[in-house]
Structures are given as C-alpha cells and as structure tokens.
Amino acid sequence: MQAQDLTVRRGTEVLFKALSFTLHAGQLVWLRGSNGSGKTSLLRVLAGLSKPDSGQLRWNAEPLNQSEDYRAKLVYMGHANALKDDLTAMEALRFLTTVHGRACPQDRMEAALRRMGVFHRRKLPVRMLSQGQRRRVALARLVLEDRPGFWVLDEPFDALDDAGLTLVQELFRENVQRGGTVLFTSHIAVQPEGLPLTELRLQGMRA
Amino acid sequence: MNPMLALLARDLRLASRRPAEALLPVVFFVVAASLFPLGVGPEANTLKTIAPGIVWVCALLSSMLSLGSMYGSDYADGSLEQMLISSMSGFELAVAKCFAHWLMTGVPLLLVSPLLGLLFGLGWEAIGLLALGLLLGTPILSMMGGMGAALTLGLRNSAVLILLIVLPLCIPVLIFGAGAVSAAEAGLAPDGHFYLLGAMLLLTSLGAPVATAAALRISV
Hints:
The structure holds 2 protein chains of 2 kinds.
Chain A (H helix, E strand, L loop, with lengths): L1 E9 L2 E10 L5 E6 L5 H9 L6 E6 L2 E2 L4 H6 E4 L11 H11 L6 H10 L15 H14 L5 E4 L8 H17 L2 E5 L11 E6 L5
Parallel strand pairs in A: 3-8, 3-9, 6-7, 7-8
Antiparallel strand pairs in A: 1-2, 1-4, 4-5
Helix pairs in contact in A: 3-5, 4-5
Chain B lengths: L2 H15 L1 H22 L3 H22 L2 H9 L2 H6 L5 H30 L4 H28 L6 H28 L5 H29 L1
C-alpha cells in the first residue's frame, strides 16, 4: 500500500496535505494524532468510503479503487459496530460475513463468538448486549479471517475490558504473522508482545 | 448465500421482529381511504368515480411512510458503510433494498386493494384493473422513494424533504394508474395506460438504482 501526496479536507478545513507513506505486508501500524487531526478521515479514504481531495493511493502499483485484490483483502471497521439492534448476535455476525463474501459454517461462527467470550449471548438481540459485548461480537469477524488481510480498524479497543484488549492484540498478531497488515487508531497505548509496532503520526494542520 | 439475497432476507427478518411497525403503511392505507366516504358523503356514483384516484393517492402516501428508515437506520449503525465496501455493488444494494421495501409495503397494499374497491362499490372488472395498475405502479414508488431516501440521508427534516422530492416524480404513475380504471369505467380501452405504466417501470428500474447508488456514495 502506497500513499502519495494525500490531501483530505473536511468542509473547507484542510485536515492534512502532502501526506505520503508506504505500508508493507506484515506491519502493525498505530495511526496517531490529536483529536480532529483526520485519523478517521484517513481510514475512510483507505477503506474507499470517501475520496482524497488530491493525491494517489496504490496497491501493488495498481490504483487502489480498481484493485480487486485489495477489495478482497480489506477489512474495515468504523466507530459504529454495524450490528442491527433487532438481530441476534449470531444473525448479525452471519449477515456481516455473508455480505463481505466470507460466509462460513455455523460451527466456525460459534467458535469465533466463543473465543470473543460472547457465545452464551449468541441468541440475544444485539440491543440487549452491553457496549463491550457488542464490540466483541463485531470483532468476531476478525477471528473468522484466515487469509492475510489488510485491516483498517478505527478505535477497535473502544469499550473493551483488559481481557478484550489482550484478545484483540492476539488477533493482530495472527494476521501480521500470516503476512497481513493491521492499521489501527487507539487512544490507549498498546504494545503487543514480540511484534514491532510502527507509528504513523498525523500532524494537525493547525498546530 | 448471495449478498443481495442476504440483505433481502435480513430486511424481511427485521420487519418480522417489529410487526406493528411493518403493518403501519397498510393500516394507514385502509384507514385513510375509508375516511373519504365519510367526508364526501355516501353517494354511490360519486364514490365510484373518485375511488381509483383515492386508492392511488393513499397508496402513494402510505408507501412514503417507511422511507425515512429505509437507509436511515443502516446509516446510523454503520451497516451502510459495510455494505458499500462489500462484495456487492451499489446498484445491487439499491435493488435489494427497493425490492425488500416493495415486498413490505407494495405487496400488502396490492393485497388489500380489492377490499377497498368493494368498499367504494367498484365492479370486479374495475377492481382487477386497479390491482393490475398497482402491481405495475408500486415498484416504481418504491424505487423513486429509495432514491429520495438516499438523497436525503443524514439531513435533518429528511422526512418532509423526501416527500417534496419524490411526490412530484410520482405524479405520472398516479395519473396513468388511476386513469386506467376511469377509462375502463367510461367504456374506453385501458391498455394504453398499462403500456405507459410498464414503460415507466422499465425506465425507473434502470435509472433509479444507479441514481440511488450514486447518492448513497455521496451521503456516506
């Protein structure tokens, strides 16, 4: 993944300009920056949800938005969990995996929910789960990934307890060891054991 | 399972979890239409003349009722983002959403329309024509509505704005749908009206999902 001279504006305010970076397979990258420095906007651009105002994004020398390979590898999770309140945890997870073309058998999904510690809640509607449990159900998608993927995660540790934090870092490690890339934002300092952590800093334009 | 089918199945399941909300449009349809005889008076011939128009106007309004939540709830909880970057294209997303909306509002309207026809004293032939018109017309309403819903996503007062955008676009459907029954009642052939409705249906199914997909990309 290569970004060249990216500029992103929100309204008339320039969040960052002439931002260039390269991400390689097997990297764990912590995207840092103060509030309002454009972390979420950058992640949305990388996920293909919005377009940069100028600059280029390339994936293996191919433009990002035309790359089928990138679409297949991308896993994006925003602030919102993308779970429907009226579906059960299991149904919500099944819908998300199916829509992304990663449908998998029932027992694998059950195992994923068990690993995230929400298996006993699988038949409850999402609206009856706590914030942390919802996050865990949403993150169960990452357990089901078995290919080296490009993960773009916006505050994945939000609402998680310490055990959850460790669990997610384990998932990061697995993906990185498979040869995938993880790019995440977090306001909590994390240091997964035995994994080099690269930092990518966004300097606010106002500073 | 195909992502489009998964989305369709999910929307239907969500509706079944909230039956009261899902039935709202059809209840509104029946109640609103049955107010007219009370207001206009029980003169059988007058009612018969205005019946097709009333049924169509009420169908139009009731299919607008659930538009606000068509993309609104998916937008709010982040599902829409996920669907837009999924393996499904924006066009497929819009088609699946509109089809689900039609199954949940258009089809129930279609099914109760004979009841309203009887209420207004229409003959069986006129009732058949009315239902045929609704069969061709209600999918157009769902697709136009989906476009309006996508355009107004994330705006305040979007409910009113949707009506202002969509209602004018639906006027031709109203004219030819109601016109078919009136023409038959007057002893003319209604075929032309149906041909035009069919043509509008084809045109909308090609154009509206493309516009909806583009609007969703802008709004999200």
